[in-house]
Specification:
By secondary structure, the chain is α+β, with helices and mostly antiparallel strands. It is 25% helix and 19% strand.
């Protein structure tokens, strides 16, 4: 799950895609003695979240904390195999495409009910997709419709010149359980995009209610609709239904959905409780106030393990980077390639990996981990070398530039366990090379995310956990066209990504991704810092779910011992 992407991709996957089996999702809680002395299927499970969700409607969001909650209540047409990155059936038992990958046919499961009692049908699927396609006004804003724009392009009638052209071409119900979704051009974002939480399917009654309320405002003042900020309107098909959002206490409660089509959730209730510091989450687990939490600080893993707590670790599927916004009034020095190269040489990335990341973390050489097809071993590299950094600054006529450096607070991300600490290390490195840093700290949601995505920060820390396993989901996310977050125009970079995205042959496409990585790293629009295996922690009396490299754990698998 990520947070930023720039336009609709155009690409690939002209193969027949078929799969079976879907997954349930959920989580659970336990206050007081709710989990004690109870058997499987009983009790309440409490999960310590690192941040508040932005919405209860996943279609309006792009952040992992929101999706962690909504994934327990909403399901997409396609899901990922528990613990892995392979696509499997979700609400559709299987799916297929035509030869040129512009027509996708889904065979829905029988007997699936929404939380409000409505039935899942092909017409309901089309109702959802057509609703997203026909959005207007502030609902077209990239902060609100990020993933729709990323996967399907624009809308029936675009209201802003920066909105990408629509790739969605319509949805028809072939019969009661067979929706057919059409796109204008094949794209590397499908079929993976059909697995996204932002494209999960909602009850037809909910969609009708959504249509009466829209987002309001623009830019910094944009607000999500009221229905998405409280329980009672949203309804999905997942093993849990959202029953309460107590914003004052930073808690969201979900109840088990007894009419769920698949395996019933292992506990009766699930609570997500926001605890925005690593220390606070660890102490809450140790005190028995919560039963689990994500993004365990590397220093806490050994302590918790020795105390009998369970600390499973995910496989690596993310990237952490320092980004540059070149189209910014305070980004003058960053427009010079030598300055960007100097910054890359000034950062001691190995020190960051060794001191800030869990075991298994690695220094990044490009904007994707080596677990993704398209990773190249021929990219331009920037080893830690302070003297070289100083020489490059001098050559650029920028011996001692001042650059604003933004970093987030009140958050922990899978790729960035301790943002403030990581910022301090980089600030020290930059100052050693002669770069003066002007700090700007902001709360992650919504201030920091908005500032980064709208190009307000000349230099910033950000990252990405892949949505699905395709190279375009990483480098295409940022570099296929002009994006305010990066603020540069470079046809060589853009053309390399567009060429890769339109290649139908998977083997050839992978080679083109490698070439694109090499072009990107020569231009150095930012500095890839690291990839890491984020870990979770669970209480002794919990049977944990399979951990997911995509951070898509199915908490419905959790039971108490």
């Amino acid at each position: 799950m990520r947070i930023l992407r720039t336009g609709a991709a155009r690409a690939v996957t002209a193969a027949l895609a078929v799969a079976v089996v879907a997954t349930g999702c959920s989580s659970e809680r336990g206050d007081d003695d709710s989990s004690k002395g109870k058997g499987k299927g009983d009790g309440t499970f409490v999960f310590g979240a690192a941040g508040d969700p932005s919405s209860l409607d996943p279609a309006l969001s792009s952040d992992g904390e929101t999706f962690r909650v909504t994934r327990q209540a909403f399901e997409a047409l396609i899901e990922h195999k528990p613990g892995g990155t392979d696509l499997v059936g979700g609400l559709a038992e299987k799916w297929s495409s035509n030869e040129d990958a512009t027509e996708w046919t889904f065979n829905l499961r029988k007997g699936v009910k929404f939380h409000d009692g409505e039935k899942l049908t092909a017409e309901v699927v089309c109702k959802n997709y057509d609703f997203w396609f026909n959005k207007t006004g502030s609902d077209q804003n990239s902060d609100i419709a990020y993933y729709w724009r990323a996967i399907m392009g624009g809308f029936a009638k675009n209201e802003d010149k920066d909105t990408p052209e629509a790739n969605y071409a319509g949805c028809t119900a072939k019969d009661e359980l067979t929706p057919v979704i059409k796109v204008k051009e094949a794209t590397a974002n499908l079929p993976g995009g059909f697995s996204l939480q932002a494209l999960a399917i909602h009850s037809p009654k909910s969609v009708d209610a959504y249509a009466k309320q829209g987002a309001t405002g623009e830019g910094e003042a944009i607000k999500r609709p009221a229905y998405s900020q409280k329980a009672g309107v949203v309804a999905g098909t997942g093993p849990f239904k959202i029953s309460e959002w107590n914003k004052g206490n930073k808690e969201i409660t979900l109840d088990r959905f007894d009419d769920y089509w698949g395996d019933k959730a292992g506990v009766e209730k699930l609570v997500f409780r926001t605890i925005d510091t690593e220390e606070g989450r660890r102490q809450a687990l140790q005190a028995g106030d919560i039963h689990g939490y994500d993004l365990v600080a590397p220093a806490d893993v050994e302590t918790l393990s020795k105390g009998g707590f369970q600390t499973p670790v995910r496989d690596v599927f993310n990237i952490f980077y320092m980004g540059f916004t070149q189209d910014n009034k305070g980004a003058g020095p960053l427009k010079k390639k030598e300055v960007r190269q100097a910054i890359a040489h000034a950062i001691d990335r190995k020190n960051i990996v060794d001191t800030q990341l869990p075991e298994g973390g690695v220094v990044a050489s490009q904007f994707m981990p080596d677990t993704v097809a398209g990773f190249s071993d021929k990219v331009t590299t920037y080893d830690y070398d302070v003297n070289k950094a100083k020489k490059l600054l001098a050559a650029a006529g920028e011996k001692s530039p001042t650059i604003e450096f933004c970093y987030p607070t009140e958050v922990t991300r899978p790729y960035m366990p301790a943002p403030a600490d990581m910022y301090e290390l980089m600030k020290t490195d930059l100052e050693k090379a002669g770069i003066k840093v002007k700090p700007r700290a902001m709360k992650w949601n919504p201030d920091y995310v908005k500032a980064v995505t709208t190009g307000e920060c000349p230099m910033y820390l950000f990252g990405w956990t892949g949505d699905f396993n395709d190279g375009y989901n990483f480098i295409g996310t940022w570099f296929d066209s002009y994006d305010k977050q990066w603020g540069f125009k470079n046809d060589k970079v853009f053309d390399a990504l567009q060429k890769a995205s339109t290649e139908p042959d998977a083997t050839k496409r992978t080679e083109l991704y490698k070439a694109a990585n090499e072009v990107v790293m020569d231009f150095i629009p930012g500095v890839p810092i690291s990839s890491s295996p984020p870990g979770l922690a669970f209480a002794k009396n919990v049977n944990p779910p399979k951990v997911s490299p995509l951070t898509q754990e199915n908490f419905g698998e959790i039971t108490f011992k």
